[in-house]
Amino acid sequence: xxxxxxxxxxxxxxxxxxxxxxxxxxxxxxxxxxxxxxxxxxxxxxxxxxxxxxxxxxxxxxxxxxxxxxxxxxxxxxxxxxxxxxxxxxxxxxxxxxxxxxxxxxxxxxxxxxxxxxxxxxxxxxxxxxxxxxxxxxxxxxxxxxxxxxxxxxxxxxxxxxxxxxxxxxxxxxxxxxxxxxxxxxxx
Length: 188
Known about the structure:
mainly alpha, Tetracycline Repressor, domain 2
């Protein structure tokens, strides 16, 4: 029985991720999820007391996934790490032009609870710090120029990723994202 419950909870989270990355956090309700899953809304409330609790669980899940991913690329060169980082986000645009969680939730930022805002900042800073370290590694190894501050370049990269995902969606052209990230890699 416990496996069934945790499986239902994960299915709810996965469906919520799809809605968040496709439409935004404010564009769906528990009733939307219940209708799609063909369960009672009370079943969703059993796992998530309210939408804020679900949002926090989503952000925790995104952070956990990112932290697990970083362990799979630890052994790579800095340039390869950054290229693989871009691949995370390229998959979003190839999946019905979804947007990354940071970007879509940033759009909803002023409507999020203070707890969700703080958790979103944690997710952003986790990725920014990892990217800064990868860029610093590349500078030390000679793969990247030393003409930039890693944290500043991490901000440029993150902004470019978010913007190019949105442009890819608007134009319905995944190639926009690829061109932007290829250009970024060459500039490093």
